[in-house]
Every structure is written in structure tokens, then in C-alpha cells.
Design goal:
Order of helices and strands: EEEEEEEEEEEEEEEEEEEEEEEE
Strand order of the largest sheet: 1-2-3-4
Number of helices: 0
Largest sheet: 4 strands, antiparallel
Structural class: mainly beta
Helix content: under 10%
Shape: globular
Length: about 300
């Protein structure tokens, strides 16, 4: 899709913050400086979302495809947007029925959470939006708020939240919050407090990328972490991790901020850098978004 153009000859020429696919065969690409793109069957479509003249202050940031097929976009200072397939357009959701607004919030990450969405506000609170009730509330987890939220995912009803102050695992049903912080010399601590991305594989293992400590892995049975970093037992090309994805062979693709992409074979434990010429003319030193295409 990087070579594709819309009917107006618009191409993806700027950095990409998020990318995902839906069950209808669409690939959704969020390019904050350009808008949102949809790629399907060799055709590229473009949506400005917010007004094009406001992109310096209001721009799309992240995307979530819910299990029912709904496509939601989180923005900086413009709330949420829901895609309408019938009209091929987006509808803004800025405030709830009580007037609580997302107008000045930078929604850095969103995920499906129960009947709605969990919203990681970059330098603010962790919130949830009940779509059916049109209600926006703050999640009760005092330690997580205002700690530079970078990623949020929901596993088995629990919210795993990546922050500048470590990893938070929040169970609202049981009113329980687990906070895991940096302790690189011990197996039950992270290699770095700055958590950037979280991914759970089909076997229940959880991979945690950090800003300055490489990748941490836990099998899901305990919080015992294996650590993958430069000059470690499992050597990566960089300690600055931005993206994690898995292909159908069970290999973990690790996108770094400054040293390209690493490919981890989970069976053998070997890690190899992905050759840049596999991506032809594109510079893949800094990986900000990644989607594994099984084709």
C-alpha cells in the first residue's frame, strides 16, 4: 500500500503511528500528519478525520477494531471517531451524555474493554468509554494516572497499561492493581521502567517492549521475566523497542527505534536483524507501527 495512491493521487508520505486490519479485509493506517488511510483490494482511500487546517493541534493518533467490527480512531484533542461503513465516513464522539469531554486529551492508545473502550491519555488519566451508555469515566487506579501512558491492552478482563513508571495490571472487578517496575538484576522485575508496547501471543505469553531495556517476556504463569537486550543472553540490535508483532510461524517481529527490525525465533531463541533490502527503498531504522501480512 505504500506505492498505492487515492483517486486524488494522495499517497502515504509521512510517519505512521498505528496500523491494523479488520475482518472485512481492510488495512487501516494512521498517519498523524496526513489523516487515516484504508487499503483494500489494491485501492487506497483517505479520511481527514479532523479538519485539515487543524492537524498541527488536532490529529489522529491510534486505532482500535472491536470484535464486532467497529473501527474507532483516537485523536489528539478531538476525541473519538467511529467509522460508518454505509456512508464511508467517520462520526465524532467528543463528549458523553453528562458533558464530560475529550476535547483537550491526547488519546495515545485505545483498546476494546467490555462494552466499550479503554483510553490511555498520554499525559493524563486512564479512562473508559461505555459505548452503549455513552458514558466516559476514569478508571480507579491512582498510581497509573499522569505517568505518561503509552499503550493499553485488555487480556482476560484485565487492563495491561504501559507507562513511564513501569507496567500496571488493573482488574476493576476485583479492585486489584499490580504494579511491576524496573529491577534488571532480578527475574521478577522489568529491565526498564519506560514501557512502550505490550503484546500477548496465542500461547498466553506476554511480550513487553521498553524504551531503554529491550524486551521482557513472561509465560503467563508467573511474573518471571526473560530479558532480551543488546549484550544479553538473547541479543537484540537495540534496547529501544517500539513495536511487537507475531507471524503464523510463531516468530516475533521486534521493531526498534534506532536499529531496524529484529526477528526472534521462539523455538531456537535466535535473534536476527531483518535485512533492510527486504523492504526495498524504505528506511526501516525507526519502526513506529507494524502489521504482519501473512500473504
Amino acid at each position: 500500500f505504500l506505492n498505492a495512491a487515492t483517486e486524488d493521487n494522495l499517497r502515504i508520505t509521512n510517519w505512521i503511528s498505528d496500523i491494523c486490519s479488520d475482518s472485512s479485509g481492510n488495512i487501516w493506517i494512521v498517519a498523524p500528519a496526513q489523516g487515516v488511510f484504508r487499503y483494500r483490494d489494491g485501492k487506497l482511500f483517505h479520511y481527514y478525520i479532523t479538519h485539515r487546517d487543524n492537524y498541527n493541534s488536532q490529529n489522529p493518533e491510534c486505532i482500535c477494531v472491536r470484535s464486532n467490527g467497529e473501527v474507532w480512531i483516537g485523536t489528539n484533542r478531538a476525541g473519538l471517531y467511529l467509522y460508518d461503513q454505509n456512508s464511508d465516513s467517520f462520526t465524532q464522539h467528543l463528549a458523553d451524555k453528562y458533558g464530560r469531554t475529550l476535547k483537550h486529551e491526547n488519546i495515545f492508545s485505545i483498546c476494546e474493554y467490555g462494552d466499550g473502550l479503554a483510553l490511555a491519555i498520554h499525559e493524563g488519566e486512564l479512562k473508559k468509554y461505555d459505548i452503549r451508555c455513552n458514558e466516559l469515566t476514569t478508571i480507579h487506579a491512582p498510581g497509573v494516572h499522569y505517568s505518561v501512558l503509552r499503550d493499553v491492552v485488555c487480556y482476560d478482563g484485565e487492563l495491561w497499561t504501559a507507562t513511564q513508571n513501569g507496567l500496571f495490571i488493573i482488574n476493576e472487578t476485583e479492585n486489584r492493581v499490580v504494579h511491576i517496575t524496573e529491577d534488571p538484576m532480578k527475574p521478577y522485575g522489568l529491565s526498564d521502567n519506560g514501557v512502550s508496547v505490550i503484546y500477548r501471543d496465542p500461547d498466553g505469553g506476554t511480550w513487553i517492549g521498553t524504551l531503554f531495556g529491550g524486551v521482557n517476556y513472561t509465560s503467563g504463569q508467573t511474573f518471571f521475566f526473560e530479558k532480551y537486550a543488546p549484550n544479553g543472553k538473547y541479543e537484540l540490535s537495540s534496547k529501544r523497542i517500539r513495536e511487537l508483532a507475531e507471524d503464523k510461524a510463531g516468530r516475533i517481529w521486534i521493531g526498534t527505534e534506532d536499529a531496524g527490525i529484529n526477528l526472534l525465533d521462539t523455538r531456537s531463541g535466535t535473534i536476527k536483524p531483518v535485512e533492510k533490502n527486504r523492504f526495498h527503498q524504505y528506511n526501516c531504522t525507526n519502526s513506529l507501527g507494524m502489521l504482519v501480512n501473512e500473504d
